[in-house]
Design brief:
Layout (H helix, E strand, L loop, with lengths): L23 H11 L4 H13 L3 H5 L6 E2 L4 E4 L2 E5 L3 E5 L7 E4 L2 H15 L21 H13 L6 H14 L4 H8 L4 H7 L1 H23 L1
Antiparallel strand pairs: 1-2, 2-5, 3-4
Helix pairs in contact: 2-4, 2-6, 6-9, 7-8
């Protein structure tokens, strides 16, 4: 039975666990703490928060995927690990390449990282093992974030929560659902809406308040 795949639950049996994400206020102490961390980890965590890309997509990034001039990255691969195969590069979960924009500050961090990496080992991959050209093990960031969480008192820090944080903050602050869905690599906006319904409801409330405030200001 060890090799039998567990059947997926029916739609009616799925439980809504809610989406764990940090607020904009909770992210600020993380940014402050990262200033004291090694460049590789600072760049990695900032990239996850800024783009919402999946962990495997982040670790599968190669230098050829980064357009420093345009400030974009192309998501072409997904780095995976299984005991049988070891570390291997697969296609993105969506099955297609997507190009997303990156904050200029993080592009700067990536440029610094490239110079630092070149002093130890030339690699095609952006995020590598210590002093090695081999790509980072997909499970390493989770272990690092556990230590980071204890060191800086950041509750429940893990890679997927940073992905959720990007989406929740983006939608809550007025980003359109289609753009967020595209950046996340969802095959359908309905998936994004279902996962982040709480953030969408908040953005709708805020939009309503903006209209009310504008009408009140016009009437004064």
């Amino acid at each position: 039975m060890d090799k039998v795949e567990r059947p997926k639950p029916r739609k009616g049996e799925l439980k809504d666990k809610g989406v764990e994400a940090y607020t904009t206020e909770e992210v600020q102490p993380i940014f402050a703490a990262l200033e004291h961390e090694p460049l590789k980890w600072r760049t990695l965590m900032r990239l996850l928060i800024d783009t919402g890309i999946r962990r495997g997509e982040c670790f599968g990034l190669q230098w050829k995927d980064i357009n420093f001039k345009a400030g974009t990255i192309a998501i072409r691969g997904n780095l995976c690990y299984t005991p049988q195969k070891g570390i291997y590069l697969d296609t993105p979960k969506s099955g297609k390449v997507r190009t997303i924009d990156v904050d200029p500050e993080i592009i700067g961090l990536l440029q610094q990282l490239r110079l630092e990496q070149a002093g130890h080992a030339i690699s095609a991959y952006v995020f590598t093992q210590q002093n090695s050209p081999e790509p980072m093990h997909p499970q390493s960031p989770a272990r690092y974030m556990q230590k980071f969480s204890k060191k800086y008192d950041v509750p429940d820090l893990h890679p997927h929560k940073l992905r959720h944080t990007f989406a929740s903050i983006a939608i809550t602050n007025g980003a359109d659902l289609t753009s967020v869905s595209e950046k996340l690599g969802h095959s359908d906006t309905a998936i994004t809406l279902r996962m982040y319904a709480h953030a969408n409801e908040e953005s709708i409330r805020r939009a309503g308040q903006i209209v009310r405030d504008a009408l009140k200001a016009q009437g004064q």
